[in-house]
Amino acid sequence: MSGPAGQYSYNPANQRVWRYTSSNGYDEFALYGLDGKRLATYKINFTMPAGETPAYATVTTVDTDVYFAGRLIGQGGPTFAATPTDNIASTRSGPSTANGLIVPSSFFPWGEEQTSTTNDRVKFATYRRDSESNLDYAWNRYYNNATARFMSPDPSSGSTSPASPESWNKYSYVLNDPIRNNDPSGLYCMGPGIGFDPFDPCQGDGDGCSATLWGNDFVPLAPGGASLFCQALPVLPVVAVCPAGWLRNAKGGCVPPPCPPKYQAWIDAHGTDAVAAGLPEANALALTSIETDWGKGNFAKNGNAFFNLETFWKPGTPMPGNKFADQLGWMPASEMIRSGTLEGYYALVATYSSPLNSFLSAAARFSNLTATNPTTFDENAAADGINAAKSPAFFTREKIFADCLTGK
Length: 408
Fold this sequence. Notes:
Helix content: 10-25%
Radius of gyration: 38 Å
Largest sheet: 7 strands, antiparallel
Shape: elongated
Strand content: 15-25%
Number of strands: 19
Structural class: alpha+beta
Distance between the termini: 60 Å
Number of helices: 6
Order of helices and strands: EEEEEEEEEEEEEEEEHHHEEEHHH
């Protein structure tokens, strides 16, 4: 399409994708998102050097639009800035025509600007105002803010309604209520007053406020009015990003993996022991699973020793008496210590009548094992001389036990 000051081309959805103005002197291409909103505009300058040097094109960004939840929040070219909008999606700030600085902007009810700011950007009620004509590009039509009318009639044959006398004027804008309503597509009146989102061009109202009665369709591309950006777009399911190791159910949601059998068996066997002793369950279970090699160690199997509280004894001297709460006796290590200051001694590990007594004994001996924070618990256990606390597996196991216990 050509005008006195500009030339334009459109895609099958009536979106303007190419523009050339004599004042700019370059070709301009627009890029749209899947929701039909313009995302960026690029200019192409063609250079044809003299001689045998091949011709080439230079592509640069003219401006970009940024949206959040369907609402314009920022736009700009050389000067990009946050863009506040009002109830009908008119922008409330923009670059001044005097010095290019971002200044507040406001509009008269039908779109004429009270404070002069630069054109070729979104201004009034979602419309992009062209500098060559001062018209507002409204997707399917052009709007003249000076006359408060569209430049072409509503194309729908069913756009009139006896219940809405204003609808008989096919050039009228939002049925003469520009304070509450807007028309993002150039085909439908929308606004909070009729229960529809003024920022979403893919809604219809069906109650006579609209100047067209095409259901929820704005861009008739085929018999029945199939729309590329409204009805024809598939509704893509929201796919959650699952944490590492989690499973996905039939509905696309995330579910925790089942508790590993070894961990569940350890919880079943000793979780109540840890709780009864007043120890943080996941921390205590992780520590004892390492200290006893999941209960397979000699001291755990034959002496119910889960924390390996110990002393030292030299053969030929009296066996020491019990020194820990709830202790049953001692079990010597299988080998004598062969070096160091304790060379010739045996390590004696306290034995108990039940695993519970071992947990109770450790809690009584080391009051600092009540720390719920895994890092603090591990540091305290290491300071108490419990070897398992120095294992790199502690934090991995603690996390798995915690997830099992909370059902994550």
